[in-house]
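pipeline: protein-struct stage 2 | run 1193 | Peptidyl-prolyl cis-trans isomerase
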Amino acid sequence: MEKPVIEIPAGVAPEDLVITDLVVGEGVEAQPGGMVEVHYVGVDFETGQEFDSSWDRGQSIEFPLAGLIAGWQEGIPGMKVGGRRQLVIPPEAAYGPAGGGHPLSGRTLVFVIDLLNAR
């Protein structure tokens, strides 16, 4: 796979997590609280500006789901290795409301995540 180009959905930002499978994987299924290895790109819903990408660092990243933002904790389980999924994550499931102290507080975030491994 190669780095995805994220197309921002039209209209206003959703108030709830929106999960869209772009490619359905056929491997092991990611479990709540499990370990996942992913490639991902994140952009700001409003501006379309990319704020983070494992692709640009040239390596995938592995981490426990339990340590991630709620949108990832809810949006990755059930995904299978080999899959590509888009998550549109409202601020409440990301970095909290505006003024929350994180640069992305108050922002709706769009991620495209490739699941490389799950355990």
